[in-house]
Amino acid sequence: MSVNASFKANSVSLMSLLEDAKQGKLQLPDFQRSWVWDEERIRGLITSISKGFPIGAIMTLQTGGAVEFRPRPLEGAPEQASAVNPSSLLLDGQQRLTSLYQVLVRKEVVKTLTPRRQRVKRWFYLDIEKCLDTDNDRDEAVLIIPESRKRTSDFGRVVELDLSSQNLEFETMMFPLSSVLDWSEWQAGFVKRFHDSDDFYQRFERITQFHERVVKNFSQYHVPQIQLDDTTTKEAVCVVFEKVNTGGKPLDAFELITAMYAAENYQLRKDWYGTSEEEGRHDRLKSAMRLPSATEGVLAGVSNTDFLQAISLLHTRDLRRDSEKEGKTGKELPAISAARQAMLNLPLNAYREYHESVEAGFVKAAKFLIKLGIYRVRDLPYQSQVVPLAAILTELGQEADSPGAIEKITNWYWNGVFGELYGSATETRIAKDFMEVVAWVRGGGTPTTVHEATIRADRLETMRMRLSAAYKGVNALLMHYGAEDFRTGQDFSQTVFFDENVDIHHIFPQDWCKQMNLPKSAYDSIINKTPLASRTNRIIGGVAPSEYLSRLGRENPGGAEAVDQHLRSHLIDPALLRADDFWGAFRQRKSELVSLIERAIGKRVITATGSDPEMEIDEDPTEIDALGFDAL
């Protein structure tokens, strides 16, 4: 993919930049985040400029081109600046220029933060004598003063420094940085205060030196500027911004689209996040299909870009259909895509056309996942696979409700999970699955994901971490196919799941396994884990299975026979568990889990030859995870 960006680099006066910001000629694109620098970062910036040190380049974008972002003034700029059509937008350098604008231009107390993120109001001063002392650390010469302009100690009872009047500033030789642009005026006040004092000439010489050595570093400071011209594409803006904006999280498509839609007077952020009075799509999806006892629903992880990806699939499908009607074929046809460029090209009318149906598609996806035994977002194998699932259900509509369609979509879903195909580089797969699964339901060929998914039986031995998609998948399959709690015999419906605090627990308890010197790599695998209620797990404790099963049998009205039935629902052989035969139970359950997975994916699992589960597995589970076997 080519990214077009034409630019020029030059050097521009800091004061002219701040003046442009004041007049509204230089503004921010609306996707830029708020100004967040704390007082210590501002101090460091002032220190650098006061010594003439570089503070890094800024990047601007000429307005008037194809990229139309809604602009907003720098924080603190006068209200009339918002009425001006800017000639440039600041892409990189917002925190630095806003900090300098607040300190040097506004002439008001600066609302900032402490390093601990507490909101404070501060004035910034330079200690003239310390600035002139070449042996002094310049950081110490930059004073951060409370809103009262008084520095106190002993809980405010002792005033250590009082700068509450200009005369006090003169007498203490403290220069307010808000007077940098008005040096002549400040100097005139200084002369008026000391013109008849005995030390006037000595004082005047000091402030003259201060002006030459320090103040001029501000007034004559130049900043390197990279200026993108008005032919720059949206994709180029996004890519360039991410490369240069190393502080904070990268710019995503949602923020760029928000700014572009704002230029058409549509508030995408409000539509997604809502307001204090009205719930947005984000909150509605987060709570979709969530029980009152649950803290979050299965869609709690759906992001704004996930939502835009699903809409992009439907919009690019429309574009492809239109091209087909025009007689285009092959490479002439536009691709169906969920990639960032497709999202950036998503017009407002397409968003408005599909946002309701796609939201309904995500809710339908939540119902689908719950039927598969996936109730919480933390138990969701792949967040990225929810995007094509929602788009598929949106496209199929009522077609997705037939038993045949449900069977095929379920088969596709589990192949993606157990084939571990949604772990990385998913954009191409999302688009292919959207097209191919819909076509499969309507009578087409087998989707690539179903065809490509390969599962090995010995993979079960290395599923040890909750981050593993396949690990979560096994747990969901057990619940979906009727696993019952060892103690109560309840199946794990959504209500029971949350009310009983169900989670994955060891069958042969960890403490007992350690006493038996069994390898952690084996007893921590999914083969030795199963969903259980928290109370049941507490009763199991760390004793041998034979002991806790005897205890459960005495408490169960149906006795040992009922407990054995509960065990079989977890694909556990009761005789092997009662005999405390770890390796026998390990082999037996591995075989049963393989059959369970084969039932879900509709094809055979590859069985390795020469595998001996009783041999201690060499791989360290942390090393396996680092290599990506258990990474989501």
Unreliable runs: 610-632
**Shape, principal axes of CA atoms:** elongated
Strands side by side in the biggest sheet = 1-12-3-5-2-4
Distance between the termini: 27 Å
Tell me the total number of β-strands. 14
Question: What share of the residues lie within helices?
Answer: 40-55%
Radius of gyration: 33 Å
Which structural class is indicated by helix and strand composition?
A: alpha+beta
- The number of distinct helices, counting runs of at least 4 residues, comes to 29
Strand content: 5-15%
Q: Biggest β-sheet: count, sense, barrel?
A: 6 strands, mixed
Average pLDDT confidence is: 89
Model description:
The protein is of the alpha+beta class. Strand 9 and strand 10 form a beta hairpin. Helix 7 runs antiparallel to helix 8 (200-219), helix 13 crosses helix 15 and helix 25 packs across helix 26.
Helices and strands in order, then pairings?
Elements: E1 7-13, H1 14-23, E2 26-29, H2 39-50, E3 58-62, E4 71-72, E5 88-92, H3 94-105, E6 110-113, E7 119-127, H4 128-132, H5 138-141, E8 142-146, E9 150-153, E10 158-162, H6 166-172, E11 174-176, H7 183-194, H8 200-219, E12 222-228, H9 234-244, H10 253-262, H11 268-273, H12 281-287, H13 304-325, H14 340-344, H15 348-371, H16 386-396, H17 403-418, H18 427-441, H19 448-452, H20 469-480, H21 494-499, E13 503-506, H22 510-515, H23 520-523, E14 529-532, H24 534-540, H25 545-555, H26 559-568, H27 574-578, H28 582-601, H29 621-627
Parallel strand pairs: 2-5, 3-12
Antiparallel strand pairs: 1-12, 2-4, 3-5, 6-7, 7-8, 7-11, 9-10, 13-14
